[in-house]
Design brief:
The protein is an alpha+beta fold and 139 residues long. It contains 4 helices and 6 strands; from the N terminus they run ααβαβαββββ. Strand 5 and strand 6 form a beta hairpin.
């Protein structure tokens, strides 16, 4: 199982590096990114979890940002609404996004500590600016 997780992280790292290159090569993204990103990135205090869908460019992805409660149920609801079908919370995984590390990467372009949001049988769905905390158990 650990080999699967490591290979999935390696794939995400490769995809992220390609996206960085594409963003650097796209004048349209670089020219408009700072205005769009500031609204939901570095300058925006939040109480919930920021999530965004994976898209072809960072600018396009940031246009999908929403703030949700930091729970697996809220994440499942957001993904289900986005996809138009119910997604079982057990199939959703939020993991630190880093370059071969268990520590999440900090994306200076948007001010996020980045986590991947993936779905079993689908793959990478998007990203979040934090983990999903474990549920609290009442005693």
């Amino acid at each position: 199982m650990k080999d699967k997780i490591m290979s999935r992280k390696a794939i995400y790292t490769f995809i992220f590096q390609i996206l960085i290159l594409l963003n650097l090569l796209s004048p349209e993204v670089n020219a408009s990114c700072s205005d769009d990103v500031g609204a939901v990135g570095i300058n925006a205090p939040t109480k919930g979890l920021l999530v965004r869908q994976h898209r072809g460019s960072l600018n396009q992805s940031m246009k999908t940002v929403v703030e949700i409660e930091p729970t697996i149920e809220a994440l499942s609801k957001w993904i289900s609404e986005s996809m138009g079908e119910h997604i079982d919370p057990a199939k959703i995984h939020v993991e630190p996004y880093g370059f071969g590390s268990d520590e999440p990467a900090f994306d200076t372009r948007i001010g996020w500590t980045t986590f991947t949001v993936s779905i079993d049988g689908f793959g990478l769905f998007g990203f979040s600016n934090g983990p999903i905390p474990p549920p609290t158990v009442s005693k």
